[in-house]
Design a protein that fits this description.
Blueprint (H helix, E strand, L loop, with lengths): L14 H6 L4 E3 L2 H13 L19 H13 L3 E5 L8 H15 L1 E2 L9 E4 L6 H6 L1 E3 L5 E3 L1 H5 L5 E4 L5 E8 L3 E2 L2 E5 H11 L1 H7 L3 E4 L11 E4 L2 E4 L2 E4 L3 H7 L10 H17 L1 E3 L6 E5 L3 E5 L2 E2 L9 E8 L11 H4 L21
Parallel strand pairs: 1-2
Antiparallel strand pairs: 2-16, 3-19, 4-19, 5-6, 7-17, 8-16, 8-19, 9-18, 10-15, 10-17, 11-12, 13-14
Helix pairs in contact: 2-4, 7-8, 7-10, 8-10
């Protein structure tokens, strides 16, 4: 297999590599903390979803934010920003702060068909996630939750990507137990599959059926086909969520996966586990991940509300101005595939409003 087919660069790392290379860890600059406080004071009477980069001004933050975007797009694909003392702010101030900062990093994208551009990630209780995001039953009659519904439960999340250039999570509180973030380089998974089983690697470069699972309005079909691996101009995009592949297999008229395709998907997940690393959020941590080159997952968690240790994150989906161009056949999911173009997010009904 020609060496040139392997992906090169800082985005191809293993857990052992990243534990020694702290380039992805950044301390929030003192001047940015001051500017955030000043912007919050000026925006005190604004709803958080009315904020923009213009009315939530951070004039001295451009160099730092450029460094963050560069690491996300051309570096390791991930950044954790530490040093924000969330105890200094009330709940609505934190919403303004995180959304306002997100507007400087990129364009917030819709996360569901109800028009939400920022979402609390927590255990919503039995059945809430299923009601909001959808559920069905599998062949044995057991409940089968959508990916969005699983996010709002305390259960583990398998390796997956979100439908945006960058997913951002601000940790307000961590759980009493568990809730560990698991991160893997999809570029490394790509390379390892190519090296070990080029026959299976080739299958993931071809279209795989997916379901939209009723989580979005619009879209040409309930199911669509998209490769797991796509490369354009030497840059990878890997969109993967096993839940939507599994759900597509339950739908009438959808092509059934071959045994070899099932084997390829399992190999992807096994290698992701092999090369991943784990990190635990602390209050005030801001995690940013480039979905094109990072798979993320989560271990199960257990809250203890009585001691204030109930896990609460705030999530943003961002389209960033320095994003890569995507393969043309990815338009079925991403819309505009041009580099630096707003793309991703969830299609909206005409009546959607910000929430």
């Amino acid at each position: 297999m020609p060496e040139s087919r392997y992906l090169q660069g800082a985005c191809a790392w293993t857990g052992a590599d990243i534990r020694k290379d702290h380039r992805w860890l950044k301390q929030v600059p003192a001047n940015l903390l001051d500017e955030l406080d000043a912007a919050l004071e000026k925006a005190a009477d604004r709803d958080w979803h009315a904020l923009t980069a213009d009315n939530f001004a951070l004039p001295g933050a451009s160099v730092f934010l450029d460094e963050v975007r560069e690491e996300l797009e051309n570096g390791s694909g991930m950044v954790k920003i530490c040093g924000l003392d969330v105890s200094r702010y009330g709940p609505e101030q934190l919403r303004r702060l995180w959304f306002g900062l997100g507007c400087h990093l990129g364009t917030p994208m819709y996360q569901n068909c109800r028009g939400e551009v920022m979402r609390d990630i927590r255990d919503e209780g039995m059945g809430v996630g299923a009601k909001l995001y959808g559920a069905t039953t599998d062949a044995s009659g057991k409940p089968f939750l959508s990916s969005g519904a699983r996010t709002l439960s305390p259960g583990q999340l398998r390796f997956h990507t979100d439908r945006c250039d960058v997913v951002g999570l601000l940790c307000l509180r961590q759980a009493a137990e568990g809730g560990v973030s698991k991160l893997a380089s999809s570029a490394t998974v790509y390379n390892e599959m190519l090296k070990r089983r080029p026959d299976l690697h080739a299958l993931l470069c071809k279209p795989i059926p997916r379901s939209r699972f009723g989580e979005e309005a619009g879209g040409e079909h309930v199911a669509y086909e998209l490769p797991v691996f796509g490369v354009r101009d030497g840059k990878l995009t890997s969109h993967f969520s096993l839940t939507y592949i599994e759900n597509a297999q339950m739908l009438p008229g959808v092509r059934r996966l071959t045994d070899a395709e099932h084997e390829a998907i399992q190999m992807l997940m096994d290698i992701a586990q092999e090369v991943c690393f784990e990190m635990r959020f602390a209050s005030g941590d801001m995690q940013l991940l480039n979905n094109h080159v990072i798979y993320h997952g989560r271990t199960a968690f257990k809250d203890d509300v009585s001691t204030g240790r109930d896990r609460l994150l705030m999530r943003l989906w961002l389209s960033v101005p320095n994003s890569r161009a995507l393969p043309l056949d990815h338009a079925v999911l991403w819309g505009d595939v041009g580099g630096g173009r707003p793309h991703g997010g969830i299609a909206q009904p005409a009546t959607a409003i910000l929430a």
